[in-house]
Design goal:
The protein has about 110 residues and is mostly helical. It is built from five helices and no strands. It has helices at about 1-15, 25-30, 30-40, 45-55, 75-95. The longest helix is centred in the last third of the chain and has 22 residues, at about 75-95. The two termini are about 15 Å apart. The model has no long low-confidence stretch (mean pLDDT about 80).
């Protein structure tokens, strides 16, 4: 988890042009997020390809009803939450956006 934090910190400090894709946004509305990414990259948006993507948002490749036991110890949870909060703080300072720690499946 420390390496994940270092990676974010380095990207923000040394990156010239950054585009952030947040998993929660991508999961909630993948077509809009892909459209935004294409526009950012200066790539023509092909609406027919985005329509194709929207047709396959659900289907047999989706994990349905999969349950999993919590693989993390209490100490792991504290470390993960601490690193996520530090990452959010950096992103808030750089992007000027107000983030809320998402309710990840195994965080407490």
């Amino acid at each position: 988890i420390h390496r994940w934090f270092e990676l974010i910190d380095d990207w923000i400090e040394f990156g010239k042009e950054l585009y952030f894709v947040f998993y929660e946004d991508l999961k909630e509305n993948p077509v809009d997020e892909i459209r935004k990414l294409l526009l950012y990259l200066g790539v023509d948006v092909d609406e027919s390809r985005l329509a194709c993507l929207s047709n396959y948002l659900a289907g047999p490749f989706q994990r349905i009803g999969e349950t999993m036991d919590d693989p993390y110890t209490e100490e792991d949870h504290l470390l993960i939450n601490n690193m996520v909060e530090k990452g959010e703080e950096i992103l808030q300072n750089v992007l000027g956006m107000n983030f809320k720690l998402p309710a990840y499946k195994f965080t407490k």
